[in-house]
Amino acid sequence: MCPTVSVSVGPERRKPAPEEVLVPEIGSEASRVVLDADQIARACARMAHQILEANRGAAGLVLLGIPTRGVALAARLARAMAEVEGATIPTGSLDITMYRDDLRRHPTRRVGHTHLPVSVDDAVVVLVDDVLFSGRTVRAALDALGDLGRPRAVRLAVLVDRGHRELPIRADHVGKNLPTSANERVRVRLEEVDGVNEVTIARDPEDGEGVQWSNDPGHTSDDPGAKAS
After folding, report:
1. Please, are residues 187 and 199 in contact by the beta-carbon 8 Å criterion?
2. pTM for this structure?
3. Confidence band (pLDDT; 50, 70, 90) for 113?
4. What does the pLDDT read at residue 209?
5. What are the residue ranges spanned by the domains of the chain?
6. Phi/psi at 148 (nearest 5 deg)?
7. Are strands 184-189 and 198-203 parallel, antiparallel or unpaired?
């Protein structure tokens, strides 16, 4: 008869749970915030000071926002400059729908509104947009502006420059230079349009990540999501 041996067994070792992987559901936006409300406000204040410094004051300045969010940004810049200069900066909007080079491919785009607060002849016009990407929107804006008058100078202010230019266009005033890959989307949300102030970045759903984006039909600027804007 074999002797009985008592063996002390410690607590059972559990296999570690597999690392949790967060997978975005269809229709969600797996994005991260790169600019919050305070950072956007500081970027606008900095650009306002840069514009005034480059122009040596507010004389002759006209701000034209490119719909949709460029209009809201232009108004913010104008308020910031007014606080510094104590003068009202003429501010309006410039619709570029009929000047886009993709109009034949998307002929049902909604035409926006152009508002010129003063003549642009001999003015220093600052075009304002939310995201600078391919440069095609700015090219369209220059064509549209050329049909409205002959400014003394044209400058460009953008909240975000994400690179990947397809045309030789450069912004004069940038809130944030944001390095991105071609398969990422940058999205700007502003209180005046979206009810929140933030800039987010996420992977493009066309690359198989299963994330759906809702395109803003009113956004006629350098669409932060579109690859060929």
Report:
1. yes
2. 0.78
3. confident
4. 37
5. 31-207
6. -105, -10
7. antiparallel
